[in-house]
Amino acid sequence: MSERGALRARLELLAREVAKFGVVGAVGLVVNIVVSNLLWRYTDIPTVRAGLLATVVAILGNYIGFRYWTYRDRDKSGRTRELTLFLLFSAAGAVIETGVLYTATYGFGWNSPVQSNVFKILGIGIATLFRFWSYRTWVFKALPIEKAAPDEAVPGGGVPGGGVPDGTLPDRGVPGTGAFLKQGRTEQVPRVEADSVGR
Prior knowledge:
By secondary structure, the chain is mostly helical. Helices cover 66% and strands 0% of the residues.
């Protein structure tokens, strides 16, 4: 594959990953906002604390979506380590998200329902960038790429299976054809008939 083709393939994979991450994140955003507003409206829990509780609920839902859909093809061998790192980076994201809401609420006194929602969403946006980077880099690690085993030596310059590295036909045991094939030549080496040898 050419370098341009490889780059295009990597970009397509990244685009699919971002799209899936975005879908799970959008569901988490809806859960986060709905739970926040329910707590703000129907409980006496302070604004920032209610927002943090809603974030925790959304994080738990997001883990299921990321593990079993967005990153379902990633390494599943260390589930305890994965969950620990997920919670750690999610907590860091929650600090970012809640920090924005806290600053708006207690730093500037912007705590009307509309303002709280605006800064809740802003905090989620900033935290989402951090989470995307940390989840794909540290939590849901890609499986290692298996390296192809080096070609075994085959008499006449061929490779296992009867072919040669450049895709031309094997030499079929005729001395010298391996060298011709490696140089890109495809001329047939004349065969010596058994009856002519006997003459």
